[in-house]
């Protein structure tokens, strides 16, 4: 098996696909059955008159939508694949010819992304198990902050001790922040001594950096330590400054005389009259600058909060690119985005378990994972806009013939990262990452798929990258608003999966993209389904068949089977029962607020708003997060919408319970028999919303729903339900 030609990676299809297909067929039959019911049955007599007919049609539309959407979600469950790599073979065949790899870390603001976290991520990727001469690490600082630069100079010094320590003791993870948080003292005495020393160095670096952070500036005597600080002499603000490029490590050696990777700091030029295109702009500047310095044919990009949790990652990725048979088709290798600070029952659905354990494996089976902007290895030439029909194989031995010293290149490098460089070029359009979309990553990945390339999703057991997830409801909703808005923009972009290259890209992959692109519009049917049936329950207008009717069957089957499937799938992905329940809640909130506002933003043409989610929390918030209490805290339109809808359901539910106590036994029996599905729906919503009612009326801490939101939502809910009731 280990011959010359044995592959460097292996692809397995999931087991039990046939069984799943049978199940999916039964669900599909029920969905069609429901459509037939809506299309052929008259609305019940009490509901016939006037505008009420529309309620029935609305239900039909919503069910058409849900049914179609469900079909799309099956595309990723049809053909999931799992990948395995053979690093041993890679090393046997190519150890001396391994390609150079450029590692990009992006940060944007030292306030929300603390420099200590940033440089720990930088150190973790510097310490990959890979020939250091062939690694170059770039930090793009869109905040242009001297604080971040200071931290990086300190990290450069620390790396001279840290890399030997990692190498000698093969420690994991190699982010010092994560390592010292989790590691127990080594038992071996030699290592113990080294551990003590390195820990001391780390603590000193941390103290120096935190001092500088607390002062808010780098003091004059510290500025003398590195000539790079003179760059800040002409610095006005983070939005108005010249390019800063500093090569911190070039051909340096560590404390034991081994080579160190290159380390480069870049803050591209920013001017108020030039739009900077957020992270896509930063990435494109990095691509150009790095092409002059190291020009590695493989590029990794990670967000500054995602440290490497496995030093094998580069070699794993190369197993895909360098595979003799299939490697030349692969444009990028995406790793899942995993989070270390998600609590056990993930109140905000933070782990996105099902997406990364199910959806992405399914996308991979259909031609390739999406590119999600972090934890992804790209082939450089493909980012430059190459199509698969062009010469797709690359020569891994190709060497960089830049013999100029970096010092002489600084002016040229600065020009590459200037505001005006991209004017009248294809950058942001056909070259590099695409501009004009809040999810530039998805759009870029899609355009690569449209050019005929495949991609790979690699999800090893020991996670390759660990990041920080959102920790309040508002952050979560805002983040999803941005994603869903961006995804919808992708749908209406030139590269839309709905029309571009139709017939050329695998239809399964197109459906996979649609799952995400249709997030925003799914808000409308969800909203409809979570309001109208509840109000009709109160009115006694049945929109669903009675329990005694044959039409009741498909509804019952769908409710039971989809819920059970969803639950079991979640458990299979490693979740808990409570985590699943929390996930249902947060998904309802996202759909009825984030997605809705994203949709409105696009229809009304409001601006792309880009909010970096904060990575720092105050202690109170942190404590509540660890207790898994939902954090409402801020009043925003998003929270108000969520609270209003849940109040409306409470009003309807309580209303109907009161109404039914006034009925005699027989009437009550008939009422519940005809309204059974309504009761289940509304009841489920009420139970799901329990923590929210608690936050509205009972909680006293700062994370409760703020009073103005409580008042607004109660008034709104009463108003809306009254209006609908008398319609
Ligand atoms: C991260 O790496 C450590 C050390 O190798 C490992 O024990 C841990 O399971 C990894 N974390 C995840 C989430 O895979
Ligand atoms: C950076 C951060 O917020 N980390 C926190 C993640 O959550 C755990 C608890 O689950 C905290 O201990 C970390 O401090």
From TrEMBL:
Membrane spanning stretches: 21-39, 54-72, 510-531, 551-571, 592-612, 632-658, 670-697, 709-726
EC number of this enzyme: 2.4.1.12
SUPFAM superfamilies xrefs: Nucleotide-diphospho-sugar transferases (SSF53448)
Swiss-Prot/TrEMBL GO biological process terms: cell wall organization; cellulose biosynthetic process; plant-type primary cell wall biogenesis
Active site: 142, 441
The keyword Transmembrane belongs to this UniProt entry's keyword annotation: yes
GO cellular component: Golgi membrane; plasma membrane
Enzyme class: transferase
Topology in membrane: Multi-pass membrane protein
GO molecular function, one term: cellulose synthase (UDP-forming) activity
Assigned keywords, A-Z: Cell wall biogenesis/degradation, Glycosyltransferase, Golgi apparatus, Membrane, Transferase, Transmembrane, Transmembrane helix
Residues noted as binding Mn(2+) in the record, renumbered to the chain: 279, 303
Record-listed UDP-alpha-D-glucose binding positions: 113, 142
InterPro entries documented for this protein: Cellulose_synth, Nucleotide-diphossugar_trans
Function of the protein: Thought to be a Golgi-localized beta-glycan synthase that polymerize the backbones of noncellulosic polysaccharides (hemicelluloses) of plant cell wall.
Protein name per UniProt: Cellulose synthase (UDP-forming)
